Amino acid sequence: MVDVIGAAELLGHEGEAEILAVRLAHAQRLGNMGWAEWHLHSGETIWSDQVYVIFGRDPGDGPIALPDLAEHVEPGDVATLDRLLWSVVQGVEPVQAEFRIRRGAGSCDLRDLRVVLEPLAGPGGTIGMHGVIQDITGRRRAERMVTESRRQLLEAREQAAEERHVMLALREAILPEPAGCLDLPHTRVAVRYVPAEKTANLGGDWFEAAPSPDGRLLLAIGDVSGHGLPAISRMAQLRHALVGLAMTGQAGNRLLDWLNELVMHQLKDTTATAIIGHLDPETRVFAWGQAGNLAPILVRDGVASQLVKPRGVLLGAASGSPYELATTRLQPGDLLLLFTDGLVERRTRDIDVGLDLTLAAARRIRGHDLDAGLDRLLTDIGGPNPEDDACLLAVGILA
Predict the structure, then answer these.
(1) Continuous segment of H or E residues that includes residue 258
(2) Closest by CA position to 224, among listed 251, 173, 252, 259
(3) What are φ and ψ of residue 244, in 5° steps?
(4) 104 class by beta-carbon count within 10 Å (0-12 exposed, 13-18 middle, 19+ buried)
């Protein structure tokens, strides 16, 4: 009876040992790690099954002896292995290091290993070493990918900043923004070019405010389709053409007719919006036409509203479509605000919301302080547009 009980206990212990061995092997596979021992005096080497997998070695070939281990290490990392082994032999504490091996004979499969070793003590001192070997290739590869991605992102940001600097410098050369306000007879004019926050979205917004030979004030604003250097180039052509054509003294709708033909025949695959008008400083009549642009805002006696748009299609959309001329008689104390759609359009909100914000902010602008008023308006509507640039042209009628 005792023999039967002893046999059952023995079988129970053997069963537990077998379960423990299975669990240990499973843990080694999950962690991609195994254990190894090297005995210095006898030359015996013992590997767990997972170390064979890590080295890509057939268990039938047996483990790699310690003197032959360097042959499987990447040449640039052999010195690391040497230092590791020397530290184990000389010390009593566990030491660790990382180095690369080539998995399998003649293989190009480089693996990153982390090895933790400690001395194997015997009666006469250190008789060998044992420890854990883990394949960390996936982790290191992911880290290298993250590092490379960060490097590429930094380079992209630096390149974008440089491109932004170049494009803004080019815009400034083509379209210099006046310093402060333009003080003209009976009027004060302030302009703002507000670049998009994203470099790739710098576009072709432009303005013009200058006295004409006949004494009227030419006021114009517009936006050429597209972004980047091509849009800036087309903007320059369109604006310079307007400056030349305006010398004829023709009304804004006639100038739009000519610019439309220019875009149709010279600036292929391009469209543009624009408002072109003349303000007579004596009569205070603003005669203007528009090509697909949002109507100007008129602020009078604390009330802001958009003017009624005359008929006009996008420049470059159709040939022969007439542009109408509208006239608006301004009064002392009035504020006229011309702007491109980048001021009010945002991907995150409806355009009507942007218009309402702009109308509310425009009511607070005072004609004697246009510069500060435009700055406050930009703040009140949410700051610069991340996706598009914008131009503003404010005209205050003095008493």
Answers:
(1) helix 252-266
(2) 259
(3) -70, -45
(4) middle
